[in-house]
Amino acid sequence: MNDLRVLITGAAGGIGRCLHRALSGRYRLLRLADRAVATCLHPSEQALTGDFTEAAFAARAVADMDVLVHLAGMPKEAPWETILPDNIVATVNVFEAARAAGVQRIVFASSNHAIGFRAVEETVGIGEPVRPDSRYGVSKVFGEALARMYADKYGIDAAWLRIGSFRERPEDARQLATWISHRDMAALARCAIEAPPYGFAVVYGVSANRRARWTSPDAARLGYAPQDDAEEYAGELEMLRPAPRDPAARFHGGAYCAMEYARRDD
Asked: What are the residue ranges of helices labelled H in 63-174?
């Protein structure tokens, strides 16, 4: 058993449940925190129920932890009145509580929607300027900037995981490039939690898809080597793609780019 004490926020969500199953019994303490109740699977686990928009709950959740894995928040596009408290205020609360508690490492669940308005023909790495495709994407850019500041100013190891399409299997043609399997998602999180000190890292959360459009030079530093490839589903998904001029087909962010799209293109 690893001697780390690890907090997963948003532990009752889809990715949270995946990580819980994969990491159960692996650490000296795995603390699961969410608004919903999480069921402990191992004697080394604790469950906390509360709201990270409340700073006092954030402080209680991170107390005595070594690593914070921050998944909590609205996981999709939503109005500002939801995005602001759930994805921005809550992230500030939990990062600041982590700093005050002496947490050594922050693993932040960002999203490919931070660069969603990049043209689909581009291969995008980690050095290009962000181009969020939604309010949700903007909130992830905010979290990335906050994590970078905590790494630079306070010396906390920080990783952004720009997660792609987390599914049991890909569901459309876009996801032949953007899919991350449950197995690879768990492996990526485990690497980000356990790798030797890395200071700061950015990794796209994507499987070993031969059509992948994103490059992650920091993946090797974390030891992340994905195993799955969406290509085995290509035969049944090739036809499930939007019309060529649809913003969902033209940009990396897919359907998020098409939402509320009002730009007059040449």
From this structure: 80-83, 90-101, 135-154
8 Å CB contact between 230 and 176: yes
Digit-coded pLDDT (tens) for 200-240: 999 999 999 999 999 999 999 999 999 999 999 999 998 87
List 166's β-bridge partners, or say none: 180
Beta bridge partners of 231: none
Closest to 223 in 3D by CA, of 254, 200, 192, 244: 192
CB atoms within 10 A of CB 238: 11
What is the tens place of the pLDDT at every residue in 138-161? 999 999 999 999 999 999 999 999
Q: Catalytic: which of 136, 150, 204, 256?
A: 136
Secondary structure (3-state) at 139: helix
What are the structural domains of the chain? 2-258 (3.40.50.720)
- Dist. CA 60–CA 44, nearest whole Å: 18
Whether 204 is catalytic: no
pTM: 0.97
Q: How far apart are CA 115 and CA 124, in angstroms?
A: 8
